[in-house]
Amino acid sequence: MADIIALLPDHVANQIAAGEVIQRPSSAVKELIENAVDAGATEIQLIVKDAGKTLIQVIDNGKGMSPTDLRMAFERHATSKIRLAEDLFQLDTKGFRGEALASIAAVAHVEAHSRPKDAEVASSIQIEGTTVVSQEVSVAPKGTSIAIKNLFFNIPARRNFLKTDAVELRHIIDEFQRVALAHPDLAFSLLHNGSELFDLPKANLKRRLSQVMGGKFEEKIVAIEEETPLVQIKGYLVKPNFAKKSRGQQFFFVNQRFIKSPFLHHALCAAFEGLLKDGYQPGYFIFLQVSPEHIDINIHPTKTEIKFEDEQSLYAILKSAVKHSLGMFQVTPALDFDRDPTMDPSYSTTQSSPKMPSIEVDASFNPFQDKKERPTKQTGQWDSLYAGLQSESVASPSLGMDVPQESSKVFQLFQKYIVSSLRSGLLVIDQQRAHQRVLYEQFLNHLTGQPSPRQQLLFPLHKELAPHERVLLESHQDTIAALGFEIEWEDSQLTIKGIPAICSESQIDEVLEALLSMEEQAIESYSPSDLMAKIMAKTLSIKSGKILEHQEQDRLINDLFACKETQVSPFNRQIFVTLEKDELEKKLN
């Protein structure tokens, strides 16, 4: 039998490693920025073109590399971070595996320049798909500059799977923000297609949060701090009244490394329980300092997951610290928030002795006397307790429905369903899902050519947005305009001058927040415009619990059955059911 097992060629092995480490342009951004931090840089500049598909360049003023180190940096499993297996449990750097640069070079054209502090000249290297094209002496400032061009040029399938520039840029900004938040003592900048998105001078953590998240963010947060033998906790919590429905304000850092931890997130949610409205997410920026011996960061290629030695204790400490912080800054509600202060006894009452109550008897009362002949007696305000009793006694049974007039064929049930009579039985419609379908098809019509009715605001609204939020809205500005919005930009300030006719001013904040979180709701089969129409329909639709007049009920039914699709909502939920006469008779037998 012939031998069938063979070693993979280096270029194939590198491409396989690249598939694990470099999944999209943002993955390369993460690796390069973290390398710059590990190199001791104090200023890091990120330059991106076409959301990283054409160019990703990171320039730093770190310690630089010698010509030999520059060449070795692009070899697999070449690293300056560890020498022994035991070093894995003493790590205080970002990268350590020595696969990032080799993986990047396997799927891109790379050009790097590096100059150590004590060297008079720099060295440069050019690599194309693991092949070293040239290495020579060059002129460059102290530090390192690595440019990645034409990412995935030799893996067309991977390049074809990349999303739109707006989506890929959003992922790049996410990675940039995570490193910038972890290191507020370093200066960062980000340029995309020649336009500056971030310019972050070094600052303290609170100031860095405002730089990254935009607006007057310092007013929306409270500090958290706790120190135990197991863990040191520092950071900030977003006050519950500033919470959002999106998860864009949730950050965990362990030893200055961004991580994702559903376990720790559950501890935060438990601490915020009862403080947030339904559907809203807690916001937090938590920095944990744990001894390297008590964690394992070598469990995932992207190093965003960490295994803790004592998770249960960490969970309890974090939950307690969050509750303490919220309580200390009087964020939590009082225990007796429903107490009526008018029922509290006065000071004079508590200091006085009790008195025997007086009793009055009507000596003229005769139980056998005719009711009409009885003398009337002033009852003060006691009769007000029985006001409306007669009307309640003749009202319909409390079935949770609004009973229609006898002439009406439609009525509302449980303030959620609209019931209409049919020749063969009853039609029960979910009012929220029906209205979602109606609005969704209206918005689709607006997006395909029919201009949306717009109402001009008498007083334009001004909103402070974070840079990444501006990038998201600008990338969909044409679609937003087609839906009926009129917006203008001045730096990070958004000015809203017009809104869709169907939208009220009180709903603008909710609509804006829903649009800013639309990437979290993205589904592969949805186009951005289709998803935006769905989000608008969901946000502006009639909600369960809203009482509708008979004319509104009739209009909603007519609008629904004028739609192209009447069976399901935009989110594929059934809109109505029918109850046949035979079914009702079976239930009543």
Offer a quick outline of the entry.
With 589 residues, the chain is of the alpha+beta class. The radius of gyration is 33 Å and the shape is globular.
Q: Could you report the average pLDDT, rounded to the nearest whole number?
A: 78
Low-pLDDT segments: 334-351, 377-408
Distance N terminus to C terminus? 78 Å
| Total DSSP helices | 18
- Describe the strand arrangement of the main beta sheet, using strand numbers: 5-4-3-6-2-1-7-8
In CATH terms, what is the architecture of the largest domain?
A: 2-Layer Sandwich
The top-level CATH class of the largest domain is Alpha Beta
The total number of structural domains is 3
Quickly give the structural class. Answer: alpha+beta
β content, as a range? 15-25%
Shape: globular
What is the fold's blueprint, element by element?
Blueprint lengths: L9 H12 L3 H14 L4 E7 L5 E6 L6 H6 L27 H7 L2 E7 L6 E7 L2 E8 L4 E7 L6 H5 L4 H18 L4 E6 L2 E6 L4 H9 L7 E7 L4 E7 L11 E5 L2 E3 L2 H10 L12 E6 L5 E2 L10 E2 L2 H18 L18 H5 L37 H5 L7 E2 L7 E4 L3 E5 L3 E6 H17 L6 E11 L2 H9 L1 H6 L3 E5 L2 E8 L7 H9 L11 H13 L9 H11 L15 E5 H8 L1
Parallel strand pairs: 1-7, 11-13
Antiparallel strand pairs: 1-2, 2-6, 3-4, 3-6, 4-5, 7-8, 9-10, 10-13, 11-12, 14-15, 16-17, 17-18, 18-19, 19-23, 20-22, 21-22
Helix pairs in contact: 1-4, 2-6, 6-13, 8-9, 12-16, 12-17, 15-16
